[in-house]
Design goal:
It is a multi-pass membrane protein. The chain contains 17 helices and no strands. It has 454 residues and is mainly alpha-helical. The chain is globular, with a radius of gyration of 21 Å.
Amino acid sequence: MKPNRKFTEGRIFNSLFSLAFPIILANILQSAYQLVDTFWLGRLGANAVAAVSISFPLLFLVLSLGSGLTLAGTVLVSQAYGAEEHKRVDFNSSQTISLIFFISLMLSVLSYFAAGPLMRLIGAGPEIYNDSVSYFQVSSLGFVFLFMFFAFQSLMRGIGNVMLPVYIVLGTVFLNLILDPLFIYGYGPVPGFGVAGAAVASIITQAISAAIGLWILFRGKSGIKIYFSQMKPHYSTLKKIVNLGIPASIEQSTRALGMAFMVLLVTGFGSEVVAAYGIGARILSFIIIPALGLAIATTSLVGQNIGAIKIKRAEQVANLSSRIAFFGLTGIGILMYFFAVPITAFFIPNDPDVIQDAAYFIKIMAPSFGLLGVQQVLNGVFNGAGFTKASMLISILNLWIIRFPVAFMLSHKTDLSYEGIWWAFPISNAIAALAAFIYFKQGYWKLRLFRRRR
């Protein structure tokens, strides 16, 4: 594919597929980090998996506070690229990289020193407390590298250059396959760090990917060139990034907080249920990657077409992407329903109780995968239009107004016990998808754009 491709003309399906497929592949490869960690840590026992599972929502929360700003970079770059304002593409990219760097540095320091109190707050038991703290602390040291690569990915996606991140992630995933068992168990002069070793391996690969991404951006041969001279804070540009990025950050942090509070509910039922939840949540995050990939592709496509003042085509992109997400993920959900037990057993082969609980969790969620896909894609439409507040409100509806209260009521006020937490997922997915669809059909996101063009 051309390194800087426009998506404002031609067949929409071809444009959507050529952009979404590499994004989905890149996201699958990135999720392989967590799956590889879970595979090797599962050999240490359920407590090792539980320690990482209880840390993951908090890590995701910290990452989401800054990663929403990388989405703002995608929106600004895609709209500028669609309008063929290439100098503005470079300038917005430079401003985004500068802002993300300082935010990630601040979050890294704060997270490292807050690890212990956060683990106590979320309810880590004595059998997993030390491992969860060490994993969280080591992981926080890599935030700068992780954020820099996320920013690189977002900027490249804004101009349609989606293959470069795939190549980089592919290489680092293979490297992580080697480093994970090396640092978890140790070999020769390399000591084994146990649970924290998985985080050490991830930091090394994240640093390599960030260095490559920044080198590409400074070199300027792949569609975007950033400059140190353009990284000096520019008030109006930073204001745009913040106005677009803060709602996206709130959306993602709301999702992360929802995950954290769900873990808080789960911890009351023991480490085996925590491990089951962790396995189910990890597999769920892997399965919904196509929805997230379609959403990101939709954001770029809608952004470019809005930049080119092709509102009708942007709406056609939204309709097609929603249908693909619904039918495609419904099919994946059917497959996951029937293969839930063997997939779960692959990660924790010697714990039948955890296998049974995690498989049941997946089976309950599987029928709602298509609805989750519709919600994610429509969020991508709103983001591409620069209306990131809509995505934020829908996520708040999904996780806080519906999922957490339903999970609490079903698990504490009915005979379902912890299985009530499982049922909260499909219920919230269905209601949030319906709300997003109704809001999309009302067309307010288009009306705002028409007013801007007057």
